[in-house]
Amino acid sequence: MKGRQTIVINKTMTLEDVLKFMEEHWDRENMSEFGTRRKSSGELEYVVLPATENWDIIIYPKAAGGLFNKENKLVLSAARSLHAIDPSKVNYARFFRDKDTFDRIKDSKEAIDLNKEMMGPCEDALQEYTGFMKKLLEEAGYLK
Fold this sequence. Notes:
35% of the residues lie in helices and 22% in strands. The protein is an alpha+beta fold. The protein is globular, with a radius of gyration of 18 Å. The two termini are 24 Å apart.
């Protein structure tokens, strides 16, 4: 389980290039729909593919340059879904008091369940999306 995959490509791509490529080549019927998101900091945009109820797969380009990034690539990574927590189901009162033992056990179980979900079905989706994207990039002549 990695939770992250990189695909080395032979050209620099912007997010707009990735979106255009996916709009032209992505199999929405057999794979999934996709969208775009911006992090709360506003810094990084990415393409979003659904994986599970609690996890998404995000895709973003990374241009070559710098000490640790010698090649152009697309990064596919597991990320918590924006819709994973329904605000109407959150007990905000618990954040304003000390947690008792029951709360700590419950929180631990939820974290373990989310981790199992990421390492299981989410990782499977990541591998499937990565394989399909590699195939599309290879057919278009973008793989290095």
